[in-house]
Amino acid sequence: MDRKGILLLIICCLFPCMTTKQPHILFIVADDLGWNDVGFRNPDMITPNINKLAHEGVIFNSSYVLPVCSPSRSAFMSGLYPFKTGFQHYVVGNSQNTCLPHDLTLLPQQMKKAGYSTHAIGKWHLGYCNWNCTPTYKGFDTFFGYYNGAEDYFQHTMGPFYDLRDNEKIAWDQKGKYSAQFFADRASDIIKQHDTQKPLFMYLPFQNVHAPIQVPPKYSDLYPHVVNYGRKHFSGMVTALDEAIGNITKSLQDRKMLEDTLILFTADNGGELVAYANNWPLRGGKHTLWEGGTRVTAFMRGYGIQNAGTHYNGMIHAVDWMPTLIGIAGGQQVPGIDGINQWDSIRMNQPSKRTEFIYNLDDFFIPSQGHAAIRDGDWKLILGYPGLYDGWYKPMNDTRDTPLYDFIYTPGDKPARLFNIKDDPLERNEISALHPDIVDRLIGKINVYRKSMVPANFPTPDPMAHTVAKRNGGAWSPGWC
């Protein structure tokens, strides 16, 4: 054998999973799922399918997102920090003339270029006032889901109007059906009809477990030991989500596609405490820059993973998922984004390529989320208002009452709060007075990031949204901006 042949043999032995084959990719997003709301962390939760996938893959212990959902979803799709796209402030309202900037290159567009069939099923929440803002105009071959941020799980209404689409058509025929079930059915139908010789990319941002707290009784009945009505039904919603994921993975298995599929599962933000989610033992929850609002349950399972059955402690941020999935697909990376391709680090358990990130920068005050924070190595600095909840909250299983949560608004960048997350992951020991030099250095870094911050695109509601909805039979519809 010549030298070239020997070299190829060595490479094949050292890297047996490296191949030109493009795997199928499922990107699953659970809405408002808390850190402590899965069975592999909390034995009270019935999530056998999620547990199995997580244990067969790599569980991420340091996977970060934004404090609320539209910013996180914008990061997933664009690979950019939301403060650079105008999406840093709260969430897109149902009557706001806003959507992701049209000059961005999004994840599904790059997946299509790489030869993938692209499908989105579930919640969009990145703007819909113009058709060009909607999923099938942003790179997805098909879309089955809703445009807004929350709705009735059975009636599919957000406020006074209906919100469910099958591509561009209003999906009136799903009224009365539970969303997790028919989202899973649609995903299974696509899998059954898919040409397995072509790679499949499916984005599955489920409605579960966002408020309102609604679930068929057969799921909540699985939690007779939970006294609190809201927590009992929330727990049932988690199990309904788990069943939907199990049905989808069974469809993959039936088509002999599962082992050729890479599954990414993540929450979009921390659990919503007043809607019965739980992030114990992390501090805070959704709407906050505390770890409970931004460090979320996430894992990868399947094709190409060489260290299955492990936990990965490396730092990963929401902006990293776009370049990582493009890297897995063998697609062309988008230049100039904030995300980092972490695929080699994840699949071979190497150190993360990320050493810092911005939790968020937002100078537009509303009590629903924090002001500014940065992570640099083990250090975390929060400036000013950290967000709506400030404490550590156990699950509400044993109480009939839903506690109220207080917040204290402090304008601007003061006080500065410093934590060493490696030594103090629960953020119980504020140590800024001990390290004024580190505080000054991190403030300097935040100020550099601020130079690239664009104003939040958060306009006042437009009454034309209601006018157009009425013209479309009472369904929220594009065409008013």
From TrEMBL:
Entry keyword annotation includes Endoplasmic reticulum: no
All copies of domain Sulfatase N-terminal, residue ranges: 23-330
Protein name: Sulfatase N-terminal domain-containing protein
Gene3D superfamilies for the chain: 3.30.1120.10, Alkaline Phosphatase, subunit A (3.40.720.10)
Signal peptide span: 1-20
SUPFAM superfamilies noted in UniProt: Alkaline phosphatase-like (SSF53649)
Protein's UniProt keywords contain Nucleus: no
InterPro entries: Alkaline_phosphatase_core_sf, ARSB, Sulfatase_CS, Sulfatase_N
Entry cofactors: Ca(2+)
Recorded GO MF terms: metal ion binding; sulfuric ester hydrolase activity
CDD domains listed in its UniProt record: 4-S
